[in-house]
Write a structure and sequence with these properties.
6 helices, 5 strands, Rossmann fold
Length: 167
C-alpha cells in the first residue's frame, strides 16, 4: 500500500530539504515514490493562480487531489507544501487512506535568519505566516522542530520511526 507524506510548514522551514532526503531513502529501499514540491507544482499546473486566499485554496486542493490520485495508483507520495488551510488537511485525512502529516515547525527568528528566497527580509505583502494567516496544523502525525537542533538526517530518522509506528 502506498502512503502520502504531507510535509507542511512555512517557507524556509526545511520541507523540501527533508522531503528530498526522505525521497532518496524510500527510493533506495525500492519503493515507487515521487516527490512533489509546492513551488514546482505551481509551475507544472501552468502558474495560473496568484496568491489570493481563493487561489491558494485552489492550488492546495490541486496538490491534494494529485497526491490522492498517485497514491491510488500505488505510488508513495511526498508532498512538500505550505498547506495553509485546515480544510485541505481535513480533506486529505478523509480522502487519502494512508495519509501521514508532518508539520515542520520553525520560529520566525530562524526563518528570517535562513531567508533563502528573501521573503522575510524584503517584507513582501503576501508572505504566509507574516502578512497572510496560516492555520497551524492541529493534529499532525508528527511535529518536527527544525530550528537547527537536529540535522535533516536526524529529522528523517524521526519520520521513519513515527511512520512505522502508525502503520
Amino acid at each position: 500500500m502506498s502512503r502520502v507524506y504531507w510535509l507542511t510548514g512555512l517557507s524556509g522551514a526545511g520541507k523540501t530539504t527533508i522531503g528530498r532526503l526522505w525521497y532518496e531513502k524510500l527510493k533506495a529501499d525500492g519503493k515507487p515514490v515521487v516527490l512533489l514540491d509546492g513551488d514546482e507544482l505551481r509551475q507544472v499546473f501552468g502558474d495560473d493562480l496568484g496568491f489570493t486566499e481563493i487561489d491558494r485554496r485552489k492550488s492546495a486542493m490541486r496538490n491534494a487531489r494529485l497526491c490522492a490520485l498517485l497514491a491510488m495508483q500505488g505510488i508513495t507520495v511526498i508532498c512538500c507544501t505550505i498547506s495553509m488551510f485546515d480544510s485541505v488537511r481535513e480533506w486529505n485525512r478523509s480522502n487519502i487512506p494512508d495519509y501521514f502529516e508532518v508539520y515542520i515547525k520553525v520560529s520566525l527568528e530562524t526563518l528570517r535568519r535562513r531567508d533563502q528566497k528573501c521573503l522575510y527580509s524584503q517584507a513582501q505583502a503576501d508572505v504566509a505566516g507574516i502578512h497572510v494567516q496560516v492555520e497551524e496544523p492541529k493534529n499532525p502525525d508528527l511535529i518536527l522542530e527544525n530550528d537547527g537542533d537536529r540535522t535533516p538526517e536526524e529529522q528523517i530518522k524521526l519520520i521513519s520511526i513515527k511512520s512505522c509506528e502508525e502503520k
